[in-house]
Design a protein that fits this description.
The structure is a homodimer. By secondary structure, chain A is an all-alpha fold. Chain A folds into two domains: 49 residues, Homeodomain-like (Arc Repressor Mutant, subunit A), CATH 1.10.10.60; 125 residues, Tetracycline Repressor, domain 2 (Orthogonal Bundle), CATH 1.10.357.10. In chain A, 69% of the residues lie in helices and 0% in strands. Chain A is built from nine helices and no strands. At the A-B interface, helix 5, helix 6, helix 8 and helix 9 of A face helix 5, helix 6, helix 8 and helix 9 of B. The structure holds a DNA duplex. Chains A, B: Keywords: DNA-binding, Transcription, Transcription regulation. Chains A, B: It comes from Phytohabitans aurantiacus. Chains A, B: InterPro entries: Homeodomain-like_sf (IPR009057), HTH-type_TetR-like_transc_reg (IPR050109), HTH_TetR (IPR001647), Tet_transcr_reg_TetR-rel_C_sf (IPR036271), TetR_SbtR-like_C (IPR049445).
Amino acid sequence: MSTSDRRQTGGGRARRVDAEANRSRILDVAEQVFGAGGESASTEEVARLAGVGIATVFRHFPTKAALLRAVLVRRFDRLREQAEALLDTADPGTAFFDFFRHLVADAATKIAIGEALLDAGGDSDGEAAEASNGLRRAVGALLRRAQQAGAVRDDVELPEVYALLVATSRTAAHAGLDEEVRARALTIVFDGLAPHRHQPGAG
Amino acid sequence: MSTSDRRQTGGGRARRVDAEANRSRILDVAEQVFGAGGESASTEEVARLAGVGIATVFRHFPTKAALLRAVLVRRFDRLREQAEALLDTADPGTAFFDFFRHLVADAATKIAIGEALLDAGGDSDGEAAEASNGLRRAVGALLRRAQQAGAVRDDVELPEVYALLVATSRTAAHAGLDEEVRARALTIVFDGLAPHRHQPGAG
DNA sequence: GACTATACGGAGTCTCGACTTCGGATATCA
DNA sequence: TGATATCCGAAGTCGAGACTCCGTATAGTC
């Protein structure tokens, strides 16, 4: 309900099926390409890997920014759905920490996602910001539930938790950080989020 | 002893004082410009703000990458010196946590620094990698000392600690994360680094 | 099978930014 | 002060990548 409903409403005829298939393939490829190379990857490469001409890409997405936005919206929506699904999980603590881990692992192969997690919140266009906020709210719900269950300390709030989520995701997105180190770093963060602790390192 | 010693050795005459002044000013401006806008900021803007022609920038630094590298080397060296100075501080725990906080705050106004903290380690040229490793080693020394003093748990190692340092620095570097949230996020990380805790959120 | 709106791809244009050229200025030294 | 090696800036070149034009192909409809 976020994308791909353009001509359906408004009177004009529906999109041709080949055009719809191309649009979908372009989105898939763009997610991979921008995921691997960041947003500096070229539109031409997306077209080539999708097996279409560059004009076709620009016909479906008027600017490169629009394409990137569409990719991000889809990704954010998917992550939000996964987060919301976890709200039904039996153990709130497991749900929260698992999703944290999942998002970081997911971002590890998607540079642009990690970057965008941050950027989309502030500026950006309405749709992308909305998708980003949707994800943020879902994380907030997981957090609150985990706190009520006593799995996360009560004195932390969404902004700093989300900041840590973004920070670890963005860093995991780049090469050079192997999986084991990432897991150990997350363990430290999770320990910091756990209840029953005193204040260290205060200046 | 890392930069600015070019013509001094080797027989040729020393650099003219106006040239040396320009070189220094270019480095200062470049640090600001790349700090604020990331490495995508243009060389021409550096030249303009430094009050010189663009050719002068390229005369001193043969490529944009070389300029960026010079900026980073200088910055890394400076941070390393600060870290090493803290090794004489009375309290090892305070030294470690203060430097962590300092580095994150420093990176908050220097996008390129945060990015480079990560990148320089892996590839990059010899000089930049060396400077980066120097900083990493200095952080390692602070960490070990803090652990011996019982201010940081014994079962964490430099890779994951450095990863967290990089992660929080990079994220702090972008807009939209206010100072208070940053401080609260760091508190969580520091709590995770503190000794005497059980394992939460394990899956 | 023919007709047509829709979609396609290749070959452009246009802008931007890294880097060079070269004639003119100036610090340095005698 | 005069000679000159060094340094400077304005105006280029060059390549890359975002975006457009237009003749051709094809899905959808009869």
